[in-house]
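User: structure tokens for this one?
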Amino acid sequence: MTPEGKIKAKVNKALGALSRCYRFMPVQQGLGAPSLDYLICAGGWFIAIETKAPGKKPTARQETTIKAINKAHGIVFVVDDDESLAFAMKTIKSCCDLAAEIRA
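Assistant:
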């Protein structure tokens, strides 16, 4: 498994533990608009995750997509290690919990 594949496996496991979280992993084939590795709806929030091998940075095209999502007030995480994954998951879980509290 590639270093990025190992990160994706951890993200999949962490997201799978959340009961109120929809995730989609688009398959990029050079057609249509570019996207990031994960598109997530958690508690009504739009969240994207781009996974990278440890220490790697998003490409210029990925940075353009990140900026477009941020401009639309979406949340984007770049996950390349356990620390960045923990931060992303804490935030995503908070989005789910907040929505559950509001809807209760």
